Amino acid sequence: GAVVSQHPSWVICKSGTSVKIECRSLDFQATTMFWYRQFPKQSLMLMATSNEGSKATYEQGVEKDKFLINHASLTLSTLTVTSAHPEDSSFYICSASLSEGEQFFGPGTRLTVL
Amino acid sequence: RKEVEQDPGPFNVPEGATVAFNCTYSNSASQSFFWYRQDCRKEPKLLMSVYSSGNEDGRFTAQLNRASQYISLLIRDSKLSDSATYLCVAKRSGYALNFGKGTSLLVTP
Known about the structure:
Chain A is mainly beta and 114 residues long. Helices cover 0% and strands 53% of the residues of chain A. Chain B is mainly β and 109 residues long.
C-alpha cells in the first residue's frame, strides 16, 4: 500500500505553545487528507477534511482557529495546534486518499502538553 | 448515539480459539464497510473490506447484513499475534471513514 508519513512522531510541549504536525504522502498524490484525534480507549474521531488548495472542512465541535490546517500541496498537509493545553494531549493521526479510494494512515503523532 | 457501535470487550481467548466480533451502524446511507486492526499506540491498519456476500481472508471472515445494519468479523484459530483492537468502520460516499470505538482482543498462550 501507499506510504504516509507524519512528523514528529511524538512531542512534549509546555502549555500555551503551538505545535505543528506534518503529514506527507510519500509515493502518491493525495486529493484529500484527513486529520483524526484519538484519546485513550476512545475511537478515532475525525477532526477535519482537507483538500489541496482549499479551506479545510471541520467537524462539529472542532475549533478551526485552534487547529489550523494547511494543505499546500498534493503531498503535504499540516495541522497546527495553537496555544496547546493539557486537554489537547492526544494521539493525532492523518490519513490520505486518492478520490474515493482507500485511506492510508500515517503512523500518528503523540502530543503531550504539560 | 454513535454511528458505529461495538462491544469494547476485552475478549480474552486462548490460542486456537474462534472469536467473533459484532458491530452495528446507524446511518443507512453508509455504503462501504471495513475492519481495521490497531495495535497499541499505532495507527490503524486495514484488515479487510466487508461485503454483503461475505468474504474470507485466511483465518478471517467478514460479513455484512445491510437489512439489520450489522457487521461481523470471525477469527478462527486465534494466534498470539492477533491480540489488538479491532475497529469497525462504515463509510458514506464522499465522507471520511467513521470508526467504532474498537473491540479489544487478547489471545493468551
